[in-house]
């Protein structure tokens, strides 16, 4: 049986080995050209990471592929190839909400690739500060969750900061209950970020109603605490479980099986047009009848679709609000530019947070 199996597999394995040799030669050839690209960018002081260019490369290859690789496979493979090439040109650092093992770190790696140099930060405020101060070229921050809504602190900092949004990623959130042993015997406390506790409240109420719950700074911090104390169970993802050596006592305990968090990538360089873009902005209106309708009318008239509309108290005046809006298209697209120009004339305040490739 083994001889027959090996005889059938050998020519297939030999063919794969031959193809792998061609692939590695081509990858090194590609990397050499990427180094030349890096030299040109240095001469013109151009940014190493161009999200619109990387999205165009991936979209083109997805269109060329005839299978059996699916679009998500091509995206994952080429993000890593481009990340490795980027690291040869110049090391790129991204700040994220730490410690290691958070969903923010997972979003960073999925977006930038494993060759990214990650800078863990203790708070969202510190992520913004690190980017503003130049300690990192980019930052990764959560902006909204499909179950719990907007991340208020991120919205406030986007208003206050001069950084731009250069990309986005919607990450599936899979919460596991983690312990040292993989069992719940002797557990007296469940620790997690406040949002994770809220996203799992029905499961916790049904299965562990009498166990104390404690909100901590992040799910990764909860996992770190559980790794040191066998009486603590943590709610966190697979990345945190592996990093802190914990076992899964119960998988996928989030109340919404389709729970997702949207992350945005912040930095200083504006992203160019990719052909599949989104623009984020903040506006406020005068306190008068029909003000919001008048504000949004130019978007409808110029055929610009809104994908998100969120309000936040302005903290000045009485019952005044800032509106956070996402629209389809790039600010340099003709119809979007016309709509934004009119909107700017009608708004009491307008801040364009950035145009960037939309998450697919």
From TrEMBL:
Keywords: Amino-acid biosynthesis, Aromatic amino acid biosynthesis, Cytoplasm, Isomerase, Lyase, Multifunctional enzyme, Phenylalanine biosynthesis
Job description of the protein: Catalyzes the Claisen rearrangement of chorismate to prephenate and the decarboxylation/dehydration of prephenate to phenylpyruvate.
Pathway(s) it belongs to: Metabolic intermediate biosynthesis; prephenate biosynthesis; prephenate from chorismate: step 1/1; Amino-acid biosynthesis; L-phenylalanine biosynthesis; phenylpyruvate from prephenate: step 1/1
Site (Essential for prephenate dehydratase activity): 261
ACT domain residues: 280-357
Catalytic activity: prephenate + H(+) = 3-phenylpyruvate + CO2 + H2O; chorismate = prephenate
EC number of the protein: 4.2.1.51, 5.4.99.5
SUPFAM superfamilies for this protein: ACT-like (SSF55021), Chorismate mutase II (SSF48600), Periplasmic binding protein-like II (SSF53850)
NCBIfam families cross-referenced by the UniProt entry: CM_P2, PRK11898.1
GO biological process, one term: chorismate metabolic process
Pfam families: ACT (PF01842), CM_2 (PF01817), PDT (PF00800)
Annotated GO CC locations: cytoplasm
Chorismate mutase domain ranges (all copies): 3-93
UniProt xrefs under SMART domains: CM_2
Official protein name in the record: Bifunctional chorismate mutase/prephenate dehydratase
A molecular function (GO) term: chorismate mutase activity
Matches recorded under CDD domains: ACT_CM-PDT, PBP2_PDT_1
UniProt organism field: Trinickia dabaoshanensis
Location of the Prephenate dehydratase domain: 93-268
Localization per Swiss-Prot or TrEMBL: Cytoplasm
């Amino acid at each position: 049986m083994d001889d027959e199996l090996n005889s059938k597999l050998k020519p297939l394995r030999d063919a794969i080995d031959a193809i792998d040799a061609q692939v590695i030669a081509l990858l090194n050839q590609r990397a050499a050209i990427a180094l030349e690209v890096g030299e040109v960018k240095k001469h013109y002081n151009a940014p190493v990471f161009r999200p619109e260019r990387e999205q165009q490369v991936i979209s083109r290859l997805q269109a060329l592929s005839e299978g059996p690789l699916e679009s998500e496979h091509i995206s994952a493979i080429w993000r890593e190839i481009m990340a490795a090439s980027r690291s040869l040109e110049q090391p790129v650092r991204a700040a994220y909400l730490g410690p290691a093992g958070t969903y923010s770190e997972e979003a960073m790696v999925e977006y930038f690739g494993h060759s990214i140099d990650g800078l863990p930060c203790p708070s969202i405020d510190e992520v913004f500060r690190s980017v503003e101060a130049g300690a990192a070229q980019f930052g990764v921050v959560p902006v909204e969750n499909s179950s719990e809504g907007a991340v208020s602190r991120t919205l406030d900092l986007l208003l206050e900061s001069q950084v731009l949004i250069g990309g986005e990623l919607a990450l599936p959130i899979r919460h596991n209950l983690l312990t040292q042993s993989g069992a719940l015997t002797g557990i007296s406390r469940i620790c997690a970020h406040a949002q994770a506790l809220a996203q799992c409240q029905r499961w916790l109420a049904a299965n562990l109603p009498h166990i104390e719950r404690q909100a901590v700074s992040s799910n990764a911090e909860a996992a770190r605490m559980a790794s040191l104390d066998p009486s603590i169970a943590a709610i966190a993802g697979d990345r945190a479980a592996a990093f802190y050596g914990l076992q899964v006592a119960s998988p996928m305990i989030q109340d919404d099986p389709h729970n997702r968090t949207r992350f945005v990538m912040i930095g200083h360089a504006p992203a160019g047009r990719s052909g599949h873009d989104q623009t984020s902005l903040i506006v406020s209106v005068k306190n008068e009848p029909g003000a919001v309708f008048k504000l949004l009318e130019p978007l409808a008239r110029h055929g610009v679709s809104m994908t998100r509309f969120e309000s936040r108290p302005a903290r000045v005046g009485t019952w005044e609000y800032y509106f956070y809006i996402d629209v389809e298209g790039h600010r340099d697209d003709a119809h979007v530019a016309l709509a934004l120009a009119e909107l700017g004339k009608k708004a009491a305040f307008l801040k364009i947070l950035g145009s960037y490739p939309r998450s697919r």
